[in-house]
Design goal:
Length: 160
């Protein structure tokens, strides 16, 4: 049974043409990574078929602050023209600090998670812009205040 599952997964990842991966892209990923609001996102192409993505989310508000850093290794496949889909494994680390202004109760710590990312993107031919929609499901391993995080996001990146 395990062998059949492995063969099925390999077949899914080998279907379709591989995309032409951009050398670099930088921008924002809105709504991802423990729902921090926005993350600064950087992608570095490693070859024509894969890339690394690093995302840093920072937040601060009246009752707390924190950060989230995620790293993902991605394979990219072409659907049609500038339209691609991508998937790959990843990990994240972060911290939070919270103190209620009403009850004076507080909490702080760090967390570590593993998971992956899957999404679709469109690269415009006329302008150096990439738009993406993806999800980054992560499972908390250490000190996670949330054992599972879905991390749905919209990405807007400048391609160079």
């Amino acid at each position: 049974m395990k062998k059949q599952i492995l063969i099925a997964v390999m077949a899914i990842f080998s279907v379709g043409a591989f995309a032409q991966v951009n050398d670099n892209a930088i921008g924002l990923r809105f709504g991802g990574g423990n729902f921090f609001g926005a993350e600064i996102s950087y992608q570095k192409g490693l070859s024509n078929i894969n890339r690394l993505e690093a995302d840093l989310g920072l937040y601060s508000y009246s009752d707390g602050s924190g950060f989230n850093l995620a790293g993902i290794y991605q394979w990219v496949w072409n659907i049609d023209g500038g339209f691609n889909w991508y998937a790959g494994p990843g990990a994240e680390i972060g911290s939070w600090s919270y103190k209620s202004s009403v009850t004076d109760d507080g909490n702080s710590g760090f967390y570590l998670g593993i998971g992956g990312q899957v999404g679709v993107e469109y690269n415009f031919d006329e302008i150096p812009l990439m738009l993406s929609v993806d999800t980054r499901p992560m499972i908390g391993l250490a000190n996670s205040y949330n054992s599972f995080n879905f991390g749905l996001a919209l990405g807007v990146r400048y391609v160079f």
